[in-house]
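Job type: complex structure
Entries:
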Amino acid sequence: MIIDLRSDTVTQPTDAMRAAMASAEVGDDVYGEDPTVNLLQEEAARVVGKQAALFVPTGSMANLLAVKCHTQPGDEVLIDRNAHIVQYEMGGLAWFSGVLPQVLDGVRGVLDPDVVRANIQAHVPYYRMRTTLVCVENSHNHGGGSIYPLPYLKAIHEAASEQGVPVHMDGARLFNAAIASGVSAQEIAGHTDSLMFCFSKGLSAPVGSILCGTREFIDRALRARRVVGGGMRQAGHLAAAARIALSDMVERLAEDHTAARRLAEGLAEMPGLVMDPATVQTNIVICRHEGGAAVCEPLVRALKARGVLVSQLTRDSIRLVTHRHIGPLQVDAALGAIRECLPGV
Ligand code: TLP
């Protein structure tokens, strides 16, 4: 048995998704004629309370288009240092939009509204750097699945709006944040100007993410999507699975959070591992080892040999992500393997 804790992206489509994909009614989406894509876009926009939505193949593309449509070349984007957009999207914002990320230090990825407010440079002389976008990530991947408290989001959105600066949310795991905090996705999204979320992570769809915002913003994003080759044709086959992700797979994310907490509690008992289970709010568990890379690298390899897959996040930390294929049995088996592989246990 392989226990794959590298990411929730490894989830397989459900039987209902496979059936829906096979029988989906489709058309050419570049002509706007795919009924299943159109339905998905309407449903997604409604769920987050935005005017419109655009289906895209990946979360990275959704973020890429959002930055493009909010900025001009030479602008500055305020963003957490460890945001996915900064660390894992290949400098896409610089390639495609020609903007500079002005990185701020969040606490577990969560930006302090006062720091954001102090760093927005919107109304400056023409020869100064101009902030035209603030990006937040919720839940925060590198922050260990951390959630933005709603008052923080509200304060960031207010500070930015006062200066005429939009807020974009990378909500790849928006529903993890919503379910874990008991706040609706719509309420969270209410403190953003645009946001994206992914169907292909814990929600188990095979492919797809969605960008949401005003009608005018989405019309521009549609043109930008075409530029990066994201205009898909009979994409309704994918949208069919995404629709099931949205209708059937959100509530169960709570199970992933319970599994993550169980995992964190087990890890906290192991010598050398630095883990405070109270910091685990959703489905991502990040823990450091006091021995640094000298322990983490061989640990990841030894676990792999035992069929337990985890990611090395930094030189001295590993990331474990729970999802639909990880129940209490898999958690306990993984903990057993980790215990065996750690030095001096
Ligand atoms: N994250 C992946 C890896 O790229 C690290 C993962 O396994 O967690 N925003 C956030 C917060 C993400 O975590 C990810 C994927 C994306 C955007 C990008 O989504 P995709 O992979 O669909 O481009």
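Summary: DSSP finds 14 helices and 13 strands in the chain. The two ends are 24 Å apart (CA to CA).
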